[in-house]
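Q: What residues go here?
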């Protein structure tokens, strides 16, 4: 079916619904994939006769490439068409899934996953930009909320799908499933996503120098954070990577301010709502992800829950996030500022309570708090995305969505690194990531509970920082109404 180039006003409601539904499925597929692969790591390690410290890069390498390339590849979507880059991205992931299923060694599997990460970077930011392209301004928040609920459903469905696949087949069957799912997505995108042209502006050529320095800086800081908690990697290597990262980002800024057609137009940060949104996205990402890595060890090592009980607790938050559309609806009605204020206040209250209640928490009580955190997320993440993307000109949506994605996820990675550092410090000198999580004897010590409490306190700090930024924005009037500049951009 040939796709037509359309403007927002030309799309009939039926085509809008089909397109948004397709993007919902894409969110599900992309966000279930990582959890599905995660469950297969033990069998990959055994089958390929490798070390877990090697095989873990099946996940980490994929994530690093995705984060490093999301912004530059989203910029390609702005230049050459977002649908085109979206299709190519799923094509690369489908190919990567097939090659992963056939990989004979762990090293080849990691290399193929790095290749698949390039495809994931092509789809990570552009999916949201496509929603803003397609959805009418009056219902943009709801459309973004629907897409975000697909992320939550993927988070819920990933472990279930992975567990079933590993029961009836092997880890190779897991990657074969991912290849088929990505291929089906590619077909659905071609059929149901309209091609919306970007306004006829002189967007220039792709900025390879900016892309190289930005990606180099991001990859360096991700490697540095990952190796910071690994006792097998000397600390000076992480410090050197941080220096390389800082140098790369400085070079990136120097290049971008002098480019006529930069990969990232730094003037975007002068758009009040977008600059504020990106600033808020970093601490919001830190708050949401602060305890994600530690929580499994807290539940099983400190609270002595079984894997089934742990799964039940972890199920609660994404189950509540299925109703993210409510946050989008609220932002459509009253603007993004007030819902975000409510959501971040909820985060702060829960983390403060967990800090005091951690030593005496019961399972039902913890599940209740996880549900409340889900409510906080509903009224934070989708309104934040709606405010950020709704303030941008259409020709900058791709790179804007990629930048918002990067800041949020980088905040999460930084918070996880801080959480590991906190736990290592509290448990005693010489305790790195390996030994800190290696056995329940260590985790059952009272010092471990103190470490968990400090992690909750850190999460509270991140929430309060984001809350302060949001309150300032709201008082200035920037968060009450969403700019309609995107809707006013014309298509050609």
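A:
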């Amino acid at each position: 079916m040939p796709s037509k180039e359309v403007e927002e006003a030309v799309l009939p409601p039926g085509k809008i619904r089909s397109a948004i539904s397709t993007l919902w499925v894409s969110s599900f597929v992309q966000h279930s994939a990582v959890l599905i692969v995660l469950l297969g790591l033990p069998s990959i390690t055994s089958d390929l006769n490798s070390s877990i410290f090697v095989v873990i890069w099946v996940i980490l390498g994929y994530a690093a490439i995705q984060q490093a390339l999301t912004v530059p590849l989203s910029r390609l979507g702005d230049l050459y068409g977002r649908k085109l880059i979206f299709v190519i991205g799923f094509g690369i992931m489908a190919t990567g899934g097939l090659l992963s299923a056939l990989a004979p060694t762990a090293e080849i599997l990691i290399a193929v996953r790095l290749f698949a990460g390039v495809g994931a970077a092509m789809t990570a930011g552009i999916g949201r930009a496509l929603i803003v392209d397609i959805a009418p301004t009056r219902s943009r928040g709801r459309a973004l909320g629907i897409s975000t609920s697909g992320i939550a459903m993927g988070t819920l469905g990933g472990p279930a799908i992975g567990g079933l696949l590993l029961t009836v087949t092997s880890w190779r069957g897991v990657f074969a499933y991912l290849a088929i799912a990505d291929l089906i997505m590619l077909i659905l995108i071609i059929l149901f996503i309209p091609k919306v042209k970007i306004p006829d502006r002189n967007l220039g050529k792709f900025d390879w120098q900016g892309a190289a320095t930005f990606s180099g800086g991001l990859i360096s800081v991700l490697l540095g954070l990952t190796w910071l908690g690994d006792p097998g990697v000397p600390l000076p290597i992480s410090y050197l990577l941080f220096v390389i990262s800082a140098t790369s980002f400085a070079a990136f800024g120097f290049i971008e301010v002098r480019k006529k057609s930069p990969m990232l137009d730094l003037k975007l940060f002068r758009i009040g709502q977008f600059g504020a949104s990106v600033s808020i996205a970093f601490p919001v990402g830190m708050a949401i992800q602060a305890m994600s890595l530690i929580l499994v060890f807290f539940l099983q090592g400190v609270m002595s829950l079984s894997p089934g009980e742990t799964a039940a607790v972890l199920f609660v938050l994404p189950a509540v996030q299925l109703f993210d559309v409510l946050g989008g609806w609220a932002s459509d009605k009253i603007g993004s500022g007030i819902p975000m204020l409510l959501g971040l206040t909820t985060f702060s209250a829960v983390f403060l309570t967990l800090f005091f209640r951690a030593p005496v928490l019961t399972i039902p009580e913890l599940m209740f708090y996880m549900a409340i955190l889900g409510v906080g997320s509903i009224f934070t993440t989708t309104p934040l995305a709606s405010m950020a993307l709704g303030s941008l000109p259409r020709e900058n949506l791709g790179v804007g969505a990629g930048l918002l994605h990067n800041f949020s996820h980088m905040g999460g990675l930084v918070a996880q690194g801080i959480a590991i550092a906190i736990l290592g410090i509290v448990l005693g000198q010489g305790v790195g990531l390996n030994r800190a999580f290696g056995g329940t004897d260590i985790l059952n010590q009272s010092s471990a509970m103190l470490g968990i409490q400090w992690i909750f306190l850190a999460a509270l700090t991140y929430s309060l920082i984001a809350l302060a930024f949001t309150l300032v924005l709201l008082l200035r009037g920037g968060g009450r109404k969403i700019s309609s500049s995107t809707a006013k951009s014309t298509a050609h």
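A: Context that may help when evaluating the design: DSSP finds 22 helices and no strands in the chain. The chain has a mean pLDDT of 78.
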